[in-house]
Structure to design on (366 residues):
């Protein structure tokens, strides 16, 4: 097995609809093509094209969302995405997704999330830990917990992946829609929802539109990670840093002042190398801010962003960072392990993950 695959890893920045296998997207496109709902050759060309600017990426997401609009498909892609991350030894996954309404499919934000949870339960290749401190007042929770425990103790010897969910607010949404997502996250806290993300096309939307919902989320104890600085917008970058999110994603278009502020606040950054290069938010790896943040000891975690859309994997990102920045395996292992400090799950999970890394340190060859 490839060394980077065999190393345990933590994934903190993965969008569900960006992490779909190409083969599944093609299958879904073919089905819709057969029903005359899309023109398959056009869709196929878009799916198989892997160099995409930031603008094209958001067109791609609009297309993916057409292919994944029903509950059954949402369940299927969730199951497959978790199985794919587990297959490359991701031991803790924070999966984020934007709850969606689709009247023609009888879908609302809650039923969308229920379909995601159904996907978590459908995973068969690995044991999925959805929550470690269940609330037994809720019958649905108790049922899932019982099922999970059955799985843990049935002697199958399956490996385990911890999965926690983040609900994303899309920058196209209104204040009310953002608030609805936060309320849904609060309602689903006992089902493994741990936080809120702000994502979507960075040239759309105003920070002040999302602020009331994000403040409410924070007051209620949800943890928050925000896409920050994907495009040069210094006013928004400062507003986001002043909000003091628990983590931020990307941090590409920062200037001197923004770096100084970020570093003094010590806010961990989710770094997505391939995504940044493919979308041309950073022109080449030799000028990527990973190097400066890593060398200055700033908290960072390597992530994929959209492993399907950018044809990458967490192992691939570690391998790429190692070769591009000349960092040895042992240090890369330490980087993966440090990411445990920035997860949104509680101390019990952190301790269990520490043990996973301790064990791996004894068996891996560096
Ligand atoms: C490339 N960098 C990025 N920047 C900002 N937002 C991104 C993104 N990559 C993905 N998304 C956000 O995630 C959605 C897809 O997953 P879900 O439908 O939520 O599961 C996209 O529509 C976009 O809102
Ligand atoms: Zn992202």
């Amino acid at each position: 097995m490839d060394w980077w695959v065999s190393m345990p890893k933590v994934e903190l920045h993965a969008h569900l609809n960006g992490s779909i296998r190409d083969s599944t997207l093609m299958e879904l496109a073919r089905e819709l093509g057969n029903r005359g709902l899309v023109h398959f050759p056009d869709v196929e060309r878009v799916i198989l094209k892997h160099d995409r600017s930031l603008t094209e990426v958001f067109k791609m997401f609009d297309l993916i969302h057409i292919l994944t609009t029903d509950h059954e498909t949402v369940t299927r892609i969730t199951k497959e995405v978790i199985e794919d991350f587990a297959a490359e030894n991701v031991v803790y996954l924070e999966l984020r997704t934007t709850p969606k309404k689709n009247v023609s499919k009888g879908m609302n934000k809650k039923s969308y999330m229920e379909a995601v949870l159904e996907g978590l339960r459908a995973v068969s290749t690995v044991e999925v830990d959805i929550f470690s401190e269940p609330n037994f007042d809720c019958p649905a929770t108790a049922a899932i917990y019982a099922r999970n425990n059955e799985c843990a103790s049935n002697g199958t010897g399956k490996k385990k992946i911890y999965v926690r969910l983040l609900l994303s607010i899309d920058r196209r949404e209104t204040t009310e829609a953002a608030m609805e997502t936060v309320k849904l996250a609060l309602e689903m806290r006992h089902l493994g929802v741990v936080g809120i993300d702000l994502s979507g096309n960075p040239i759309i939307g105003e920070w002040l539109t999302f602020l009331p919902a994000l403040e409410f989320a924070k007051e209620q104890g949800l943890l928050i990670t925000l896409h920050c600085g994907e495009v040069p917008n210094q006013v928004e970058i400062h507003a986001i840093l002043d909000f003091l999110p628990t983590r931020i994603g990307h941090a590409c278009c920062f200037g001197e002042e923004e770096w100084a502020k970020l570093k003094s606040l010590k806010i961990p950054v989710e770094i997505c190398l391939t995504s940044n290069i493919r979308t041309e938010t950073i022109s080449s790896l030799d000028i990527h801010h990973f190097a400066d943040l890593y060398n200055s000891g700033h908290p960072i975690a390597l992530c994929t962003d959209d492993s399907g859309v950018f044809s990458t994997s967490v192992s691939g990102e570690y391998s790429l960072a190692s070769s591009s920045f000349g960092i040895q395996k042992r240090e890369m292992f330490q980087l993966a392990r440090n990411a445990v400090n920035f997860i949104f799950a509680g101390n019990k999970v952190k301790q269990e993950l520490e043990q996973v890394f301790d064990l791996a340190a004894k068996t891996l060859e560096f």
About this structure: Confidence is low (pLDDT under 50) at residues 148-155. Strands lie at 9-15, 90-97, 127-129, 160-170, 193-199, 223-228, 247-250, 269-271, 300-302. The chain is about 50% helix and 15% strand. The longest helix spans residues 71-87.
